[in-house]
Specification:
heterodimer, A: alpha+beta, 5-stranded antiparallel β-sheet, 10 strands
Amino acid sequence: MVKFFRAIALIMTSSAILVSCGETELAAMKTQQIKIEVEGPLFEGVNTGTFDFNFQDVLPEGKQKEAVKEALLKSVKIIVDTAIFPVPSSFTLSLASPNTSMKECGFLNEAKLNSEGKFEIKLAKDQDFLSEVLQDKSQTIVIDFNIAEDWYDNYSIKAEIDWEIKLKK
Amino acid sequence: MKKNKSIVFVLASLFMLTSMVGDTTEEGDKLIGVWEPSNKKVKVKIDKISGKYYGKIVWLREPIDPVTGKPKTDKNNPDESLKDVPLKGFRMLKDFVYAGDGEWNDGTIYDPQNGSTYSCVIKLKDDNTLDIRGYIGVKTFGRTDVWKRLVMKKKKK
């Protein structure tokens, strides 16, 4: 009798796993390109640039936010025209939304350009908080960057953000 | 005639509402600036992002970690992968909303010395003084610190 119930439990667990796996499909990686214009003057130290968007616009056409099962930041690269602007020594990347708390998503200390001439942000391993932020009505990307000298003009930053989005079928 | 009166009433109401919203924003923005806690170990710049108020560390009395010889990082962060986030620029005040009557609530304060985050309410005592109360659960069981605004000194002519 015990063996029978064990077998039933095993079958039910396996079915549940199969069903839950079957409910998710992996959308193609989406790259979001943003440009932030920080109004000058900027002072030596940490300055902030923000970009407001709606995660809905990042999703594949025809898909709604409610269909997102999971979204992860896979890579964030920051582009600064170092021939014009002071080179930042560090970056911190955060994400905020109207009804959630702002969270740090990544950073770069002793910032150095990679082989593509971009600053590659080290991303947080724990990104569980993203789902709640991305389901909100709007989102704000916050980039803090540390410069060693005052800059009296506007400052321009571009970023390439790669999202991995899992959608419910 | 009645129609004209209604239009005037609606316009007047709209005008009053707009000016009230403007006043609230202006009052709330009194929090914006650079502030110093009573221990004078850091200076915190408070600014507004998408309608909420945030405070980041812009100056540290001891910016270099004596152990590593490098700029201090958030080594007590509960997320292992964020322990190297630079403390200079770290947002220790987050998500404050102006509630009126010189008070901002719904926010949190982070203590980099122990990696803990507390609920927090900010009260403007006067234009250059804040009461910052951090607490867990109930406001009664908390601690209040007094922060002073850093005012730029005018150069003597």
